[in-house]
Amino acid sequence: MPCRIVLAPLLLLVLSAAATPSALRAAERPAPANSSIADSEPLAAAISLFNAKRVPEARDQLAPIVAREPKNIRALWYLGQCELKMQRRGVAADILARAAQLAPTHAEILADYGSASLLRATELGASFSAIGYARRGRTALEQAVKLDPDNIDYREGLVQFYTRAPGFVGGDFALAYAHVAEITRLDASRGAVIKANTLCSEKRYDEALAGCEAFLLTQPDNYLALYTLGRIASETGRGLERGEQALRLCLQLTPRIQDPDHAGAHYRLGLIAEKSNRPADARSAYQAALKLEPTLEKASTALARLQP
Asked: Domain of 131: which CATH number?
């Protein structure tokens, strides 16, 4: 009897900073101590291109460096990131695997390798190859957490994996909540939000909303907690009035760079207006989102849906 495996909905693991590190963070990274060459002139030039978001050009310069110096960890690392940004996830995972083998104690390389592997698993869909990539991705992220236990991004990536993957691949809510507890110890705000998201993964929506409200009693102007409350309301239809109130308060606050922006808040307000049978308000909210972020595709799609 053929084995039917449903992976795609479970492995959509887009990790924040740990998944595809930003050019700013990349620029701040030291070269791994055991790299074969410490930023030669050609490598430094390629990294500058990467940091300037000229990724295809950076990739074209990094590939010959790696061909000449197959054990140059830093070149492998940046080449893997280029391939990942260019949507060549299988190639990226293979290149980053080589970097991880050469630098087994470098947490960021392991995290990038884990993220690329999980994204490749998503791309492959229902296949045994996808399971292999998923398990390798999880293992790499677990190793990254062991090396850098206070890195919230790595732990959040594992929470997403454990809550979305089936048990035979490694999904485990108990492990997810263990990481949530550590995240909460490190950052109460993110911990509250990630716990709410985890509860939503179990369809425990009322508990998730209650958790946000409990945290907001201590920090009533916490942007991320307010946004999460509104997001849950917009997705589930629960507590729509309170969700709208929370999102409107978000618009009066300034989000941190890592928080969802005001365009996202307007989009969520549009969803709530739709669920409340207020199409005119929904259109206005989607238009406001697109004014702030013209490339926000989900807002464009929603607005088109409402056009008379």
From this structure: 1.25.40.10
Q: Is residue 65 part of a domain?
A: yes
- Positive or negative, the CA dihedral 131, 12, 183, 211 is negative
Does residue 14 sit in helix, strand or coil? coil
- Are the CB atoms for 288 and 280 separated by under 8 Å? no
The model's pTM:
0.72
**Residue 80 in domain:** yes
Radius of gyration of the chain (CA): 21
In order along the chain (308 residues), what is the average pLDDT of each group of 10 residues? 32 35 36 52 93 93 95 95 91 95 95 91 80 91 96 92 86 94 93 93 94 94 95 96 97 92 97 96 96 93 88
Assigned domain for 200 exists: no
Cβ-defined contacts of 205-208 (< 8 Å, 24+)? 205/232, 205/236, 205/238, 206/238, 208/232
Res 39: pLDDT: 67
**pLDDT value of residue 15:** 32
Whether 47 and 28 have beta carbons less than 8 Å apart is answered as no
From the list 225, 213, 108, the residue with the least C-alpha distance to 157 is 108
Q: How far is CA 258 from CA 190, 224, 226, in A?
A: 11, 10, 15
Q: Is residue 194 part of a domain?
A: no
- Using alpha carbons only, what angle is made at residue 154 by residues 152 and 160, rounded to the nearest 5 degrees? 100
Number of domains in the chain: 1
